[in-house]
Design a protein that fits this description.
With about 425 residues, the chain is an alpha+beta fold. It has 13 helices and 23 strands. GO terms for molecular function: ATP binding; metal ion binding; phosphoribosylamine-glycine ligase activity.
Length: about 425
């Protein structure tokens, strides 16, 4: 098969790394890709939301399977446009259509969806600029902390936890009238704060059948001890010690099954990944959010633990035959440490030369924000630069190997969290 992956981050490099291992893969392309994907695939200089260029590439490269990595093209209806093209009738696509992607594209939509189907989540209400005064009164009647979420896509940074009513009032006003998150903040979901420990569960579905992939815990805050502003993710661990078989069974019965039943009832065609962001509150799962794709950097710890031929999984998803697949998961632990540019998630510089990559022999190096430089050099090209994944028989060893790699790789201004996974090592039931 000829296969095309859309995207340019660590998630897409992980997809390419896994797909390239399959004997079913003939030619592999990534659009636009990065310096890492170029090691296992052919990068195409195409933006992942350029429908015309993607259509041409599918036809010219005789693509059989398309795997869509990022959320933006899904939310903007790329799948619908490709499926409407009769010339692409035989193209297999892994990724939901525009209505399905609303699970991620609109926090308000996903909240209403959960309420309709009795899926456990925090109490909330949605406000707009026109209902700002109601929103302020709603805040005044609530205890802190209070969570405020931009309704639309905000690159993983549209969630603010406020510690006082005055702060909550100022943030809500700024989001609705000050343009803090632009178009994404035209609606704001005000949500009850749930206290617990977070994890992510990933579901692969063909629209009817499903497989629950390995769970993971990611680390969103920039600072150690989960301090500072949110980022796209500073590291991840899989499996998660507190996600017992009993707890994951509750997730399946109370969340996964009702979610898929709701999508079918609303005639939403969903063939792809559902990321369920959860919080464990006294051993009960609550949904924080849905994503319509795999998480990043969670993909970099989930995929190394999947032992199946990944192309077989993707084809079964597109063909509605996931029930024929028996998922095989490694019992080992995977840990990834994300190395970022100095200043991230705020202002940072690009184009810094990365050295010592060739010495990283104890980890899998997934490129997130990189580009090829002259004479074989690799340059930084984003906030999150590398995800360094170690797999070992114990959490402690995986943490040690991943952190050693993060210390070893060098570029000007590099930063990484030194506490990835340590909370799980200390965790007691």
């Amino acid at each position: 098969m000829n296969i095309l992956i859309l995207g340019s981050g660590g998630r897409e490099h992980a997809f390419a790394w896994k797909i390239a291992q399959s004997p079913l893969c003939n030619k592999l392309f990534v659009a636009p890709g990065n310096a890492g994907t170029a090691l296992v695939a052919t990068n195409l200089p195409i933006a992942f939301n350029d429908t015309e260029a993607i259509t041409r590439a599918v036809q010219e490269q005789e693509i059989d399977l398309l795997v869509i990595g990022p959320e933006e093209p899904l939310v903007k209806g790329l799948v619908n446009r490709l499926r409407a093209n009769k010339k692409l009738a035989k193209l297999r696509i892994v990724g939901p259509d525009q209505r399905g992607a609303q699970l991620e594209g609109s926090k308000d939509f996903s909240k209403q969806f959960m309420q309709r189907y009795g899926i456990p989540t925090a109490a909330s209400r949605t406000f707009t600029a026109e209902t700002l005064e109601e929103g302020l009164a709603y805040l005044d009647a609530h205890q802190v902390p209070i969570v405020l979420k931009a309704d639309g896509l905000a690159a993983g940074k549209g969630v603010i936890i406020t510690e006082s009513i005055s702060e909550a009032r100022a943030v809500l006003t700024d989001m609705l009238t000050g343009g803090r998150f632009g178009e994404a903040g035209h609606k704001v979901v005000v949500e009850q704060f749930l206290k617990g420990i977070e994890l992510s569960v990933f579901v692969l579905t063909d629209g009817v059948n499903y497989k629950i992939l390995p769970e993971a815990k990611d680390y969103k805050r920039i600072g150690e001890g989960d301090t500072g502003p949110n980022t796209g993710g500073m590291g991840a661990v899989s499996p998660v010690k507190f996600a017992t078989a009993k707890f994951l069974n509750k997730v399946e019965e109370k969340i996964v099954k009702p979610t898929l039943a709701g999508l079918q009832k609303e005639d939403i065609r969903y063939q792809g990944f559902i990321f369920v962001g959860l919080i464990n509150v006294k051993d009960e799962p609550y949904v924080i959010e849905y994503n319509a794709r795999m998480g990043d950097p969670e993909t970099e710890v989930v995929l190394p633990r999947i032992q199946n031929d990944f192309v077989e999984l993707m084809v079964a998803t597109a063909d509605g035959e996931l029930d024929k697949i028996q998922l095989q998961i490694s019992p080992q632990t995977a840990v990834t440490t994300v190395v970022v540019s100095g200043g991230y998630p705020d202002t940072y510089e690009k184009g810094k030369s990365i050295t010592d990559l060739s010495t990283l022999d104890d980890v899998t190096t997934f490129h997130a924000g990189t580009k090829p430089g002259f004479n074989g050099h690799v340059l930084t090209d984003g906030g999150r630069v590398l995800a360094l994944t170690a797999v070992a028989n114990s959490l402690e060893n995986a943490v040690m190997k991943s952190q050693k790699a993060a210390r070893t790789v060098q570029f000007e201004g590099k930063y990484y969290r030194k506490d990835i996974g340590l909370d799980l090592i200390r965790y007691q039931d």
